[in-house]
Amino acid sequence: MRQSKFFTKAVKELPKDETSFNAKELIRAGFVDKVAAGIYSFLPLGLKVHEKICQIVREEMDAIGGQEISMPTLIPKESWETTGRWKSFDVLFRLAGADKKEYGLGATHEEVITPLMKKFISSYKDLPAAPYQIKTKFRNELRAKAGLIRGREFSMKDMYSFHKDQKDLDDFYEVAIEAYFKIYKRLGLEKITYLTYASGGSFSKYSHEFQTLTEAGEDIIYICEKCRVAINKEIISEQKSCPKCGNKNLIEKKAVEVGNIFKLGNRFSKPFGLVYMDEKGEKQDVVMGCYGIGPSRLMGTIVEMNHDERGIVWPEEIAPFKVHFIEMKSKEAKVRQEAEKLYNDLTKKGVEVLYDDRENVSAGEKFAEADLIGCPYRLVISEKTLAENCVELKKRSDKELKMVKISEIKF
RNA sequence: CGGGGUGUGGCCUAGUUGGCUUAGGGCGUCUGGUUUGGGACCAGAAGAUCCUGGGUUCGAAUCCCAGCACCCCGACCA
Known about the structure:
The protein has 411 residues and is an alpha+beta fold. 28% of the residues lie in helices and 30% in strands. It is built from 11 helices and 23 strands. The mean pLDDT is 93. The structure holds one RNA strand of 78 nucleotides.
């Protein structure tokens, strides 16, 4: 991608009013634009990062048997009334359509997935199943805050699993936990992310959250360092020790919830009449679980964890581009020629390169913007480097510069 | 939803004991020129419902009332 073709531009000044790092940095570097509190446009750079996060989530869900689908955002009132949530779900956006129809905007999709699966599940042979989607969700929060961390419109992957009995759900639930940790590992968050016991769904004693330690978080958790699990403050009065080892020396930390999974049991299969015939020919309730993770919130969290005074430092796997290639202006046509050649070569090899080919932009400005955008590698070509048939390589995360022969560049 | 803060060209802001403001500066933008290894410089130009509505006054960005928006704390977060 040529930077001269970008319609977005990084700005020098930080947005006033914003205090959270993710909002400040993402807006300043041109990843997102704020439309209203908790409502953002994703610009080319931001969309790329978001897509990469989605792709990681997608791969890990597919790996445990998930199948991607897409459900609607407009969900009829009648569906919500079946489970009683039209009245009780306080963050549901309710809106009126023409002809007296009413709708809730999708905040979560049990009310759609359950009747959907009813059309396909009739026998124990149809189980288990684990459809999921990655979709924009809407929640009418009283207070949006902290940039992408808590929005009124945000992206969420929601998977729903369907089982013949509790044991099958329990087994899959453990597999899902592992898959989640694989996601956090790929995002560079696994060392500071804890499986956290939180208040239960409607069926089980606890639900499980995945909490990433950060000052930008809004939850308080108590961690057991030995077992690498935690307890959410909301249940600390009933559970004062580590649920795994009984350790009472728990450490209080601030964290952001980056995932939440529930054992739903028959909370939703019951009202929708989702049943199957077992081996004996008897009708049984389908046992359900659900598994949420928010790519947009993850994106905000990752910025909170990965920035310095100059800007964002993206982990390699989700950086908008792997390499930020800066061409220094020169009177010699050779610099431009060699730069174009290298850009084309790298691109052909499949390396994602952001090529700063802008003219009349000072060197300082190019460097400052590269630091702001935060690609993992910075490559500079100039008269100086070409004199040695080299380019200069620098990692965003450290200070050392390295001269590398053009013929030996590898990513 | 309770409390606090903020609101001035696209962005950051000065001005806020009413008059010296035909609202000043910086960034960005446009034109011309000089520059090019850390947000470089010179000259010129365009660009403003001073959040909105009402009020007080000879006169309001500035005072009063009402509302809106954003940020923060808290509450809330199947």
